[in-house]
Amino acid sequence: MPSKPVELPTAVxxxxxxxxxxxxxxxxxxxxxxxxxxxxxxxLKEHYSGKLKLTDVREMFLRMRRQA
Length: 68
What we know:
The protein has helices at 10-25, 30-45, 54-67. It is mainly alpha-helical.
């Protein structure tokens, strides 16, 4: 998971939040939730130069949910 904050354009950040809500609406597990996380992984890789994995995106969703 990224240790430094990633600067995202506003539209990308809003899409991330929308997908995070969809991820949890899908139950947070299963094929549909994995597809949502995979879509965000692809988008985030365009804005982050480090290595990201699907599990990193899931962890970001979980951490943000706990803090909300």
